Amino acid sequence: MTEKNLSQKNDFIREIIRGDIAANLHEKIVTRFPPEPNGYLHIGHAKSICLNFGVAQEFQGLCNLRFDDTNPTKEDQIYIDAIKFDLTWLGFNFENNIRYTSDYFEQLYDWAIELINKGLAYVDDLSPDEMRSYRGTLTEPGIESPSRNREIAENLDLFERMKNGEFEEGKMSLRAKIDMQSGNLNLRDPVIYRIMHANHPRTNNNWCIYPMYDFGHGQSDAIENVTHSLCTLEFEDHRPLYEWFLENLSIPSKPKQYEFSRLNLSHTILSKRRLLKLIECGYVTGWNDPRMPTLAGLRRRGVPPEAIRDFVGRLGVTKSDGIVEMSYFENTVREHLNVTAQRRMAVLNPLKIVIENYPEDPQFKDELEATNNPNNEDDGFRRLLFSREIYIEHNDFMENPTKKFFRLGPGREVRLRYAYLIICKEVIKDKKGNIIELRCHYDPASRGGNSPDGRKVKGTLHWVSANHSKKATINLYNELFTEAIPGSNGDWIEDVNKTSLESLTNCFLEPSILDFKSNTTIQFERLGYFCADLNSTQENPIFNRTVPLRDTWAKKT
RNA sequence: UGGGGCGUAGCCAAGUGGUAAGGCAUCGGGUUUUGAUCCCGUGUACCGCAGGUUCGAAUCCUGCCGCCCCAGCCA
Fold it and tell me: A502: domain CATH number?
């Protein structure tokens, strides 16, 4: 499905919304994307982003970006900034709809007091350990805390003192009074406020008690008049609690929560906790390492945002959790790049060729014309300088060619793309027997790569002029994990791919490649899609491989 | 022996009682100055299993099996 018929998307969530609209339930559809600013956005978030913003767009509604900042010990302004940047890059506008759960701290506090006054919440002085043992287990009911029947007045007083900073962290907490027998552990008197003597990125030292997710989320939705609160499957059994608060509080609206399955991608991990560990342990260089499935990593790798949007759109939205093959993602990326990327030539592992019958005069200027993008005439042509000494890819030559190898070999003729037909006359080796140079002859009549007499050449090779090309470093990225599902045979960290990065430092680029900035991905013909790294300079060019071209030849051999 | 979900080809996924869409992958073939792209073709899916209802069930009922999530003062 392409983005053009986005409106045709049909999944259980959109079905529910259409039903609600038909039943005239809402004036306007409102959704929200609620990241916790404790890490960078990854492609799994992109699914939620496209769903929430997409739904709002399709039904002429609204989608708020709401930072769920209720845990100051884990959150940071740098993440808030990074999330905004990534969201904009992905192509979504939220400037007028930014919210923070911390905007509602005052209201949330009042609601907590409302709950106390209704006898539906109490201050507990159980320690975290005690609370755990009182909670029971999956199969045994919990037992009630001794504090459970504290007088309302005392609860009010204690809660006020919690707020005033009279207690240490962990000494007191505010709990909802629900049901210690419930089969749903979330309903066994969940903590709704805890003490944290921590500085908050936005409210600074105004508070030393902070609401828990369950107490903050639904009510924030209600404040924002969210109609459809879309979250992932693991929150399914939080829904009764979500509804319990809305039921028992004087809230302004009644949002509904719906859950869909989160995205799992093979050969990578989509967990902020684990991603952070990869960084901390030095397996990658940071959140924006090109191997990371983060939006920042994918961007640096050269993946266009359109491809990400299209990819998550193709997956659909369901409640069944599966694992999507990485190759599916790569294919979507190739599909976009194939039509948009300009073509250039670069040689990764150079093998020098001297064309013996080519003019030796250094003043001789031989300019050839090359198409920039066969899929887009508007990209026009460029001029390529040819010369007597060129580089081709080392593996485009075989001294003893196998039957189906149709590239260069002794006595064989191939075409140099946009240039000439050449024949290999001699193979030159060093003392160890390594091939270090080829001596060839070219056919002047084949200029442009044409075959003047109609003779067939099976191979067309990319090349670069030895004297005119620019030396560069090229990073080839492979899968971050060797296992499709990291950790399926033990510790996930053991499955980190030791060769996820191959850095080649003796590569040669056609000069015009240096004109491309890191936000433009181009194709190196016959190799793949590449883009300039963030740290690339004119003096020290560095290019990252976004994704290789499909290679059915390599596959067979 | 608790609660909540999910189970349609290798992967994603339509389907909502009338006799199994589509995409990706795979494998063939054609075109090609990128072994890319493009174009054609290619799958016996015991619709988790077993019963039942029905003229007819992936779709309804019952029972079973498998997988995922939940015992943070994380989100």
Answer: 2.40.240.10
Q: For A71-106, write each residue's pLDDT tens digit.
A: 999 999 999 999 999 999 999 999 999 999 999 999
Residue-wise burial string across A127-154, b where 16 or more C-beta atoms lie within 10 A, e elsewhere:
eeeebeebbbeeeeebeebebeebeeee
Nucleotide nearest the Cα atom of A181 (by C1'): B2
Question: How much of chain A is in helix, strand and coil states, percent to nearest 5?
Answer: 35, 25, 40
Judge if A505 and A441 occupy the same domain: no
Q: How far is the CA of A315 from the C1' of B13 (A)?
A: 7
Tell me if residue A272 is catalytic: yes
Q: Is the CB of A238 under 7 A from strand B?
A: yes
Q: What is the DSSP string of A288-309?
A: T-TTSSBHHHHHHHT--HHHHH
* Same domain flag for A156 and A9: no
- Nucleotide closest to A193 measured between CA and C1': B73
Together in a domain, A449 and A349: yes
A4 pLDDT more than 60: no
pLDDT digits (tens, 9 = 90+) for A352-386: 999 999 999 988 999 999 999 999 999 999 999 99
Question: Is A36 one of the catalytic residues?
Answer: yes
Residues 54-73 of A with CB under 7 A from strand B: 68, 70-71
Res A388: pLDDT: 97
Q: Tens digits of per-residue pLDDT, A173-229?
A: 999 999 999 999 999 999 999 999 999 999 999 999 999 999 999 999 999 999 999
**What's the burial of A168, exposed, middle or buried (CB within 10 Å: 0-12/13-18/19+)?**
exposed
Nearest nt (C1') from A71 Cα: B74
> Could you tell me how far CA A543 lies from the centroid of its own chain?
19
A11 touches strand B (CB under 7 A): yes
Region A428-432 average pLDDT: 97
- Same domain (yes/no): A377, A456: yes
A525 and A449 housed in the same domain: no
Look up A262 and say whether it is catalytic. Answer: yes
Provide the strand spans (E) within A510-556. Answer: 522-524, 528-532, 542-548
Residue A418 Cβ < 7 Å to strand B: yes
Q: Protein A64 CA to nucleic acid B75 C1', in Å?
A: 18
Dist. CA A219–CA A230, nearest whole Å = 14
Residue A430 belongs to domain spanning:
345-465
**Which residues, 6 or more positions from A27, have their beta carbon under 8 angstroms from its beta carbon?**
none
Predicted TM-score (pTM) of this structure: 0.96
**Does the nearest atom of strand B lie within 7 Å of A333's Cβ?**
no
User: Does the residue A336 lie in any domain?
Assistant: no
